Amino acid sequence: MELDRLQVAVTGAQGRGIFFTGSAGIGKSRLLREAVDALPAEKYAVWWIAASATTAAMPFGGLVQVLPVEQPQGLSPAGILRWAVDVLQQQAAGRRIVLAVDDAHLLDPPSAALVHLLARSENACVVGTLRDGEQIPLPIRALWTDGLVDLAELSPLAPTETAGLLAVILGGPVDGGSADRLGRLSAGNPLLLRELVHAAQGSEELTKRYGIWTWTGRLELAPSLTDLIDIRIGQLSPGVRAVVELVAFGEPLGLRLLNKAVDQTDVETAEERGLITMVNSDRRLDVRLAHPLYGEVVRRQCPVSRTRRLQAHLAELLEGVGTRRREDLLRVAVWRLDSGTAQDPSLLASAAAQAFARYDVPLATRLARAALDADGGFAAAELLATILMFADRPAEALGVLDAVAPDTGDEERLSRWLTVRGMVSYWGLSQESTVEKIAEQGTRLADSAAQARIRAFEAIMRLHRLDAPAALRLAQGVLDRPAASVAARELARCTIAHLQAVQGQLCRSATAVDLVQAKAASWRAEMPYLQLAVELARGTRLALSGDLAGIDRLVADEFADLADAGDFRLGSGYLAILRSYAARLRGRSDAALQAALGGCAILATSRVYAGLAQAERAQAAALRGDARQAAEAMAEADRIHAPSMAVLYPWLEQARAAALAAGGDLSGAVAHLHQLVGRLRTDGFAGHETLALHDLVRLGEATAATGPTCSDDSRRTVAQRLAELSEQVDGELPPLLARHARAVADGSPEQLLSVADNFMDLGLTLLAAEAAAGAVHLLRQRRSPEVSGASERLAVLLGCCDMVQTPALRAATPTLTDREWQVARLAADGETSRAIAEQLFLSARTVENHLQRVYSKLGLNGRAELKAALRAMPGHNGTAAN
């Protein structure tokens, strides 16, 4: 858009030029160069001027590249300017003059005056760049204030643009969290982003898993990047350096607090030079560095002794005015720890808990370990072990716990130790026997609150192990105990919410999750990881109900931001899986696969959701018709899926069927889905059963028998079972799935098109396209004149998708030979048989024979219907596969 605007300013009838302003490295010079290089030399006389600090010291130094070396003597300053304009006009020889001035803020006064004068000429325009925060010569500033040129700010890269540029630099996609962190650190500056990537590559902090690049977050600053930042910071007086250093170690730092430590004049100077910026935060004015990388460079260049002194000084300043905000305690603890003045284990432990509640796993780990080392005792050990579990270090967590095994007389402490140890051994190490052990140990406790905590953990473990009846009984028992803590009660409620979702009680599940979330302030400090149970229950409900808007809200809320920023991989990984699921149902196979691959990369060292991520990868690959990758993903899912997460089996088995179908084994896929339906029915997972049954409908099995034999020795069909479940499972989706099944069973193209419209109302583009494809297939078989309109509707739906190749879509697409496809495409474009014959080196009779076979295969009555029919073929790109 900026390039178009610049070209219009040069070539348009009205514009006389434009200047772009922005930070160094944001791409101003490249934009300017690209625009002027594209101008034809026969129409434009282009002069490129690169102003610099060196040329700024001499008259006309900025224009030394374009003016003659010898200047006439005895002319007044005004006369020299007129002479210079005449020289440029003579050199242009009637062409339009284009003067491109890079870094125009560095022009010497005579050059700046000449640029202004030239901009007033009828056949000339000036374009240029300016750097933010620099003094601009008055003649240049007058260019836009007098209306001679436009002034535009070149904005930093948007997040999507940052991700795109990273993919170009690295030759492959980057996971969302890494792209966001690199984008924030570079502040959307392309040059700095490139330098950051090269530095990370050089230090091996960028790794590639499953085709996705991931950044560890550790930053090694290359000399070129440090030099670049040093140039932008410039020489600092001792007072201004003190301001920059304090803000670098303390940002965001309250302005009142900063003014207590340094001279206010130095603060103002730092702001004027663009080194710091003021940000409103509630009722406080905070000070931050103008660019995130300033802090990286300043902190690394600061001597260790001064660093520790500054950090201790910051802690004293904030303690002196009182830690009024909740995050102030965390900041003081970090400063104390980094300065070597941390002596209070309770401060460190409280700060670690606060960091963990914000899902900043690396910081929480460091603070909790420091608290334990400072004799923080059992509380610090319990916290550290919990954090290590979520940092994928379960063996280390067990070592920490076993070193502080409590006395059996303190039942409250013992229950906490047992549950944390049980969580680590069950989910971290996949030791299924943990469930029985924790149950047996819980019976020995007499304290009702301690026992309720044990039972709440046992309940969710049993749910994940697929012992649903026992899980429900235990969870309800916890809710019935008045002595149970808030955290224990809400953990039990999450177990019930998850169970309700898979059973199809979606409304009750939503209510339960809302109740848990409403009490988050009461449980987050004690059990922040409970949020994972909340999101799993909520995500399961949203996926089963086809609520894509709800998934969008979930992956965009505060938890998602905190999880990505804090390296909370279980949270980030699960949300990536949900992103992929939503993209898949929208028919966006590329976005689905990238999200699934990102989830696989994030969860590569975890066992909790790793198998689920691979299953979603298999689904996304199958959607694209990539049978090889789908099979590979399922093999990986089988290898790494943890038995402690058996409750996720419906998702894995649906993915297995999709992988089989993508590989052409439709009978195997159908048989597998029938087995899955039977298992789901036995387990009472009606919510999942509706989706598995609908997968059978999508494979053409709407009239197939399913379930046990009835009293009259008959069995229900898939369509009948879906109709039955539509009255049991909550939400808009189950009745719609049942209608789809009935339309397929009845062979009704009218009903299929109606169902397609209803799917689109829910945003389920993929299912809408499949329903419409079924209608087109039936209409073609009947050689109905309505096939053209139905094909147009299918084409519109497929236009909302990208590369999608499902069995339902392929079944509605007759196979054409290469030659038939070529003939059909040319005929649809309006070519005559003779013209087609000449292009394809065929006889006109052969062309007509090919066309007749095309019409027969597609169920068409002639060329009038051919174009819509071809557009409605998924992936219509002229290959034999179509």
From TrEMBL:
SUPFAM superfamilies: C-terminal effector domain of the bipartite response regulators, P-loop containing nucleoside triphosphate hydrolases. One of its GO terms (cellular component) is cytoplasm. GO terms for biological process: regulation of DNA-templated transcription. Residues 809-874 form the HTH luxR-type domain. InterPro entries: AAA_22, P-loop_NTPase, Sig_transdc_resp-reg_C-effctor, Tscrpt_reg_LuxR_C, WH-like_DNA-bd_sf. One of its GO terms (molecular function) is DNA binding. PANTHER family: TESTICULAR SOLUBLE ADENYLYL CYCLASE (PTHR16305), TRANSCRIPTIONAL ACTIVATOR DOMAIN (PTHR16305:SF35). This is LuxR family transcriptional regulator. The lineage of its organism: Bacteria, Bacillati, Actinomycetota, Actinomycetes, Micromonosporales.
